[in-house]
Design a protein that fits this description.
The protein is mainly alpha-helical. The protein has one domain. Helix content is 47%, strand content 0%. The protein has 5 helices and no strands. The longest helix has 12 residues. It is globular and about 30 Å long.
Amino acid sequence: MASGRNGTLYLGVTGDIVQRCHQHREGLIDGFSKKYGCRTLVWYEVYDDLQEARFRELQMKKWKRAWKVRLIQDSNPDWIDLWLSIAA
């Protein structure tokens, strides 16, 4: 989730991305994403194994910001909100 193009980034793991994105978009979850307005889904990965997803999350949280931005730019150069593609 991002606050906007090149804005603040939030990274997390969920078993229900549609529900979780809705919660972030509506500001229903107190914490980092609400405080910094991270409401736009700009990138995601899908895993069948929750442990793999959590490992990847921990790995990426150690990354430099520039690496995360590059990952987003590579797959979503216009920082389009991907919410519509998963909510349909």
